[in-house]
């Protein structure tokens, strides 16, 4: 029955700047412990905060796993909620990465659209998770910050025709623990899969007529 399993890849980022422990990777590791249920095969990866690594790693994850969904998780020092990002941006990458590098073009994909939206309805995911009484505040944003988070998200959206998601988490203890963030990721990714399945069922239904 394994052929009915859905594959999900979730990434978090490694240390950068003053963040020697990156809350996004801690949260992803907590999610791995919790899992997404027997019907979902979950793979997790830690992504270095490096533009060039992202440009090779993200395509390789899509190619290797052919996942139903890829969810990238990143840290925002300014966030106080778990934030669902609606879209990725192609231009404006001026911040240097851990290798003191930034793309000469300051863009992700030369000739790509300025902005790509996720096919997942983040407002619906947000409402559902908020209504579930999780005890972790969730919000929605349209600006993933023009750094490695946004860069990774756009790259993934471009490759997958929008079948990617990005979640920003606040730093650990401000106000949530790693366990809280892991539970939040579990609830969010489950809702994303649910919404994705429903929209695919609708499309199949339309094709059938």
TrEMBL record:
Entry annotated with the keyword Protease: yes
Query: Enzyme class, one word?
Result: hydrolase
Reaction catalysed by this enzyme: Release of an N-terminal pyroglutamyl group from a polypeptide, the second amino acid generally not being Pro
Q: Which UniProt keywords apply?
A: Cytoplasm, Hydrolase, Protease, Thiol protease
- EC assignment: the record states 3.4.19.3
Active-site residues, record numbering mapped to chain? 85, 149
Q: What InterPro entries would the database entry show?
A: Peptidase_C15 (IPR000816), Peptidase_C15-like (IPR016125), Peptidase_C15-like_sf (IPR036440), PGPEP1_Cys_AS (IPR033694), PGPEP1_Glu_AS (IPR033693)
List localization entries: Cytoplasm
Alphabetized Pfam families for the sequence:
Peptidase_C15
Q: Which residues form a coiled coil?
A: none
Family per similarity comment: Belongs to the peptidase C15 family.
Record's PANTHER family? PROTEASE FAMILY C15 PYROGLUTAMYL-PEPTIDASE I-RELATED (PTHR23402), PYROGLUTAMYL-PEPTIDASE I (PTHR23402:SF1)
What is the documented function of this protein?
Removes 5-oxoproline from various penultimate amino acid residues except L-proline.
Q: What is this protein called?
A: Pyroglutamyl-peptidase I
User: Which species is this UniProt entry from?
Assistant: Polyodon spathula
